[in-house]
Amino acid sequence: MVALPDTRPDSDTTRDQRMWLERVPAQYWVLGILLLIIPSFASDFVMFQIMGWTYILGLIALSLMFLGGYGGMVSLAQMTFAGFAGYLVAIFGDSAISGISQGWPWFVTIPLALLLTMLFATLVGWLAVRTEGIYTIMITLAIAAAFFYFTRQNYDIFNGFQGFNSVLPPQLFGVDWRGPEAFYYLTLFWAVAGYAGVLYVGRAPFGLALQGVRDNPRRMAALGYNVTAHRVAAYAFAGLIAGVGGILLTWQSAQISPGTVGIQPAIDILVIAVIGGLRHPIGAFIGAFIYVLLKTFAVDVLVALGLSGERFQLLIGLGFLIIVFWSPDGLLGLWDKLRESRRRDPLTGRRGE
Amino acid sequence: MRQFARHHPIWTGLLAIVVAVLLWAIFAVWPAALEDAIGRKKLFLNALFNGITLGGLYFLVASGFTLIFGLMRNVNLAHGSLYLLGGYVGYFAADITGFWLLAFPIAFLVVAFFGVMLQILVFRRIEGQDLRQTLVTLGISIVVADLMLWGFGGDFYNISPPSWLSGPMTTFFVTAVRSSGEPVYMTYPLVRIVIFIASVVVGVAMWLALNKTRIGMMIRAGVDDRDMLSATGARIQIVFVGVFAFGAGLAGIAGVVGGTFQSIAPGEDIRFLLASLVVVIVGGMGSIPGAALGALLIGLAEQFGSVYFPTYAVVLTFLIMVVVLAFRPQGLLGKA
Questions:
Q1: Is residue A271 in some structural domain?
Q2: Which of these, A242, B189, B258, B316, could form a disulfide with A63 (CB 3.0-4.6 Å)?
Q3: Separation of alpha carbons A306 and A301, rounded Å
Q4: How many structural domains compose chain A?
């Protein structure tokens, strides 16, 4: 393509000359300010359990969204990466299991845990990209199951069925990072960082090439891109995001055990990402928010309806089923459909089809 | 076979050695040094038999899965739920009627009916969309698992075989020799052997039906090129429904077998879904002989693993899968 000289003095060129701060859309300002002032009126429970958990699950689902939405690879191993990072923090850092935990300082533990998680994700990715579509789902599901059984059986490193407890965040700058407010801002920071990171990488050359690989791997290969390398690198990046989420998750519950990395949690992450929508990073957080609300309050609602609170899984499953059956793009897809149907045609004044 | 030997002389030689060692280990009386090194022969033979019979069970579950995938490219992650449903139906059928054998046709019919419903109501609406099929069947399996937990509770159900099948049977394998020179023969539960033979019969019948009959020809043509087959006038939707019903029914039968072998409980659906996934990945998607080979390998690996290195027995099966994937992504007998 030949780049035509842009002679139109239209909004596109003028908009680019504005400060980057001014280019942030209004919705972001509203949402950002709302999220920042939540601690001023919300209870500790809402901050720590609901919002904190939403950000953490959103981060892990975000890593799946990155792989699935930009890379076209749906991996069920994201919870495994998250749990791996959580385990490593417990093993290298401090926990109640002093026989295994090394007690290294946080500035060694956390980078090392994230690095090893990326390495692990790269290995899994290298294995998974040898397959396509459905096979990827099945292989990552099998890897997640293998990791779950391994941690449950291994007592030397992973402390078996019990796992590790009292895994606490470091007391940095004299702040207790597990306090509700501090933890809220900590998780919010990482959620925003992950969100912005995914958006940025999605528009960077690597992300664009990855989307090209998703849409047509043969053409990208013919253009000289290394398809496998892009896919594996996507796994590594997603592993990093999931790792951050996993460390935060471990700190939030102050423990990590095989139950955290089981098959059910792995599927839950997929459910979260799909409910929200795989097309845009915000979908992961929307899905996580709905999931957390359901998980927290569904029992009360079910009991109020006269059903046993144990039927929570049924509610989640039905909601998931309805969404994937009628709107494959999740809630974001529903939102787009709604906007599409409300939009008036400027010439005829008619509503869209 | 001969072609394989000509193309891969080294692999053939290695395989022949392995088979020879296995045959010797099965039939010979073990010298004392060997028994000291890896345990008694009885242990080995038991692991071998358990592995083979477990492989038979895995084959029953996985063959339906691989058949459905091979023909329709439908990934049915609710296959484990069909297995569990078959187990429950079989339990109640055997309990109410009092005939163990009656549990098999009833479970087959009920689960096949569910399979047909699944094919007509779900898969036909989202044909050709792999990811959505996976997600929808995953959702179905979550819902069905919870409904079954609701209906049948969290208890373990055990289908007891009839009296003429229960009890051990003396085989002609010598496990040891008494000091008096009298050989000790191995005993093994009769019901397991019968069920294994039945699954071999099912497998052979399936292979014959696929390769020697008209319907089998249609199915094979459908596997290779679905559109072309329907263009020649074959009623492909009927073939689809039939294969789906048969594959689901096999899962139901496997549920009865699993309930007799082991027990039926919530969570078994995921276990058998995973097992059939690993089996078909190892054996090759859509291939019946591949499913048989994969099931045998995984069953043996699980049993030998649990005898000789019990801690990591489950991990061993996944290790096999990883190795197969790394060197032969399409599976041992899969088409490239």
A1: yes
A2: A242
A3: 9
A4: 1
